[in-house]
Design goal:
Layout (H helix, E strand, L loop, with lengths): L1 E6 L5 E5 L4 H10 L7 E4 L5 H13 L2 E6 L2 E5 L10 H4 L7 H10 L1 E5 L12 H9 L3 E5 L2 E5 L7 E3 L5 H12 L4 E5 L5 H12 L3 E3 L5 E5 L7 E4 L4 H13 L3 E5 L7 H9 L3 E5 L2 E5 L9 E3 L10 H8 L4 E7 L7 H8 L3 E5 L2 E6 L7 E3 L3 H13 L3 E5 L2 H4 L5 H7 L4 E5 L11
Parallel strand pairs: 2-14, 3-13, 9-10, 17-18, 21-22
Antiparallel strand pairs: 1-22, 1-23, 3-5, 4-5, 6-8, 7-8, 10-12, 11-12, 14-16, 15-16, 18-20, 19-20
Helix pairs in contact: 1-2, 1-4, 1-7, 4-6, 5-6, 6-7, 8-10, 10-12, 11-12
The protein binds ligand EPZ.
Length: 428
C-alpha cells in the first residue's frame, strides 16, 4: 500500500506548467468513437483516468498510436462492439459518457450502472430522461444500462438540474439524431465548450455551448479532427490556493485566466495578491489572510472541485468563514481528516463553519476522493510536523506528476510503500 509523506512548514515558490484538463479529456476520449476518420489529441494529461479511458477504447476496438508524451492518434473506424468492460468502467464514473457516444454511433449501448462516489449520491436521472426524449428505449438489468435507439430524433429537453454529465451525454446522443435538439438549463463549464469545439471540428453542428441553451443539428457522419485539450482549471486553481495557503509566490503557466475568475476574485477578497496575464497567473501569499465566506455553484461560480482546497486555505485565515456546498450532498468527507490535523470545523448539512487562524499539525490522514486528497497534501505543507497520506491513488487519477510539481516549488513530498499496511489507529 502506498503513502505520501509530507514535510510541513513549506512555502511554495516558483513556476509550474499546468497540464491538460482531466474533465475535458474524459469527455473528449469517449466522444471520438463518433468519428470514422482519424482523431489526433494533444495536451492529454498522463493521469490514471485518461489511461483507463484509453484502455476502454482499445477494448472497444479503437486503434491507438502514440504521437508524443501527451499526444495520441486514434482510428475508431472499426469498432468491435457496444459493451465496454465492467472491470474498467467501474474505475471511473466518466465512462458513462459512452452511453451517449455508443448510442450515437451504433444506436445501441450497454454500459454498467456507474458507481457512487465519496461526494454523496450521484444520480443519472437527467441523462436517462434526455435519452428517452430522443427516442431511446432504456432497460436497466443485471447492473447494466441498456439503451436502444436506431433512429434517434431531435427533441427539446429541459434539464431539471444543471448537470455537466447530463449536458455532455445528451450533446453526444443528439449529435447524430435526426433534426434539431435543444438543451435548456444546460451546464456552462469550459470542458463542455472544449467538447463542443472538438465535435464541431469533426463535423458536428453544435451552437451555444458555454451558455444555458445548446442547439444541436444531427449530422450523419463525422471525420478527421486534430484537437488540443484545454488546460486544467481545477489543477491551476489547486496550485493558486496552495500558494496562498503556504504564504508562497507561485506562477501557474499555460492557463486560461477567464476559467479561473471565481478563484482569483475569492483570493483577492482574502487579501492575496493575484497578477493576471494572458496565459499565466501569479499568486503571492500574505501573512494576514482575511476570513471569507465561500459558496460553490456550477460554472462560472466557485467550483465545487476546489471547495476542499478553499477550506484548507480558510483554516489559515483569522476569523470565522462559512462554506456552503451547493452542488453535491456529501462533499465534506475531508473535514474529519482536517480535524485530525487540528482544524476547527463544524458541519451542518451543506454548510461548514471554519474557525481559522490556528496552525495545523501534521498527522496520519486518508484521501477520500481526488480533490480531498490534494487538499490534505496542501494542509500537510502548511502544518507543523509531518503528515502521512494514505490512499494517494485518488490523487493520481486527476493530477499529472503532482509530487514532482510541488517538490519543484519547494515542497518535500515522498512516496513510500507501506511494508506493514496496518491502520494508523493501531499502536505503532
Ligand atoms: C462533473 O461531475 C465533474 N466530473 C466533477 O468533477 C464536478 O465536481 C461536477 O461535474 C460538478 O462540476 C467530470 O467532469 C468527470 P453533475 P458530474 O452532473 O457530471 C446532480 C472531479 O473531481 N445530478 O454536474 O457527475 C448531482 O447529484 C469531479 O474532477 C442529478 O441530480 O456532476 C450533483 O448534485 C468530481 N441528476 C449535481 O447534479 C443527474 O442526472 C451536479 O452534478 C445528474 C446530476
Amino acid at each position: 500500500m502506498e503513502k505520501i509523506i509530507v514535510r510541513g512548514r513549506k512555502r511554495l515558490c516558483g513556476q509550474v506548467k499546468i497540464s491538460g484538463s482531466k474533465n475535458a479529456s474524459v469527455a473528449v476520449l469517449p466522444s471520438l468513437i463518433l468519428s470514422t476518420g482519424k482523431v489526433t489529441l494533444q495536451n492529454l494529461p498522463d493521469i490514471t483516468d485518461v489511461r483507463t479511458m484509453i484502455r476502454i477504447l482499445e477494448d472497444l476496438g479503437v486503434n491507438i498510436r502514440r504521437r508524443g508524451r501527451n499526444a495520441l492518434e486514434f482510428n475508431p473506424a472499426r469498432l468491435r462492439g457496444f459493451t465496454p468492460p465492467y472491470n474498467l468502467v467501474k474505475k471511473m464514473r466518466a465512462s458513462y459518457y459512452l452511453m451517449g457516444s455508443l448510442l450515437a454511433r451504433f444506436g445501441r449501448a450497454e454500459v454498467p450502472v456507474p458507481g457512487g462516489c465519496d461526494l454523496g449520491p450521484r444520480p443519472i436521472d437527467q441523462h436517462l430522461k434526455g435519452f428517452a426524449a430522443l427516442g431511446a428505449k432504456i432497460n436497466i438489468e443485471h447492473g447494466l444500462i441498456k439503451l436502444a435507439g436506431k433512429k434517434l430524433a431531435g427533441a427539446h429537453i429541459y434539464l431539471d438540474v444543471v448537470s455537466v454529465g447530463a449536458t455532455i451525454n445528451l450533446m453526444l446522443a443528439a449529435a447524430s439524431a435526426e433534426g434539431k435538439t435543444v438543451l435548456e438549463n444546460a451546464a456552462k463549464e469550459p470542458e463542455i465548450v472544449d467538447l463542443a469545439n472538438f465535435l464541431n471540428a469533426m463535423g458536428a453542428s453544435i451552437k451555444g455551448a458555454g451558455t444555458d441553451v445548446i442547439r444541436i443539428e444531427g449530422m450523419p457522419r463525422f471525420g478527421d479532427v486534430d484537437h488540443t485539450i484545454i488546460p486544467d482549471r481545477i489543477e491551476a486553481g489547486t496550485f493558486m490556493l496552495a500558494a496562498a495557503a503556504t504564504g508562497g509566490d507561485v506562477v501557474v503557466e499555460d492557463v486560461i485566466p477567464k476559467h479561473l475568475e471565481a478563484v482569483t476574485a475569492k483570493l483577492r477578497e482574502m487579501g492575496v495578491e493575484v497578477e493576471v496575464e494572458p496565459e499565466r497567473i501569479r499568486v503571492k501569499g500574505t501573512q494576514s489572510l482575511r476570513a471569507s465566506d465561500l459558496k460553490t455553484f456550477p460554472y462560472p461560480g466557485f467550483p465545487t472541485d476546489l471547495q476542499p482546497l478553499g477550506m484548507v486555505l480558510l483554516t489559515a485565515a483569522e476569523g470565522t468563514s462559512v462554506i456552503t456546498e451547493n452542488v453535491f450532498d456529501g462533499r465534506f468527507r475531508h473535514v474529519d481528516e482536517l480535524k485530525r490535523m487540528g482544524a476547527q470545523i463544524k458541519v451542518e448539512g451543506r454548510t461548514a463553519v471554519v474557525e481559522g487562524g490556528r496552525l495545523l499539525s501534521g498527522a496520519p490522514v486518508q484521501a477520500t476522493d481526488l480533490r480531498a486528497g490534494a487538499a490534505l497534501v496542501i494542509a500537510g505543507l502548511m502544518a507543523k510536523g509531518e503528515t502521512v497520506l494514505s490512499e494517494p491513488e485518488h490523487i493520481y487519477r486527476g493530477y499529472e506528476n503532482l509530487e514532482q510539481k510541488l517538490n519543484s516549488l519547494g515542497a518535500s513530498l515522498k512516496r513510500v510503500r507501506d511494508q506493514n499496511p496496518r491502520s494508523f489507529s493501531s499502536p505503532s
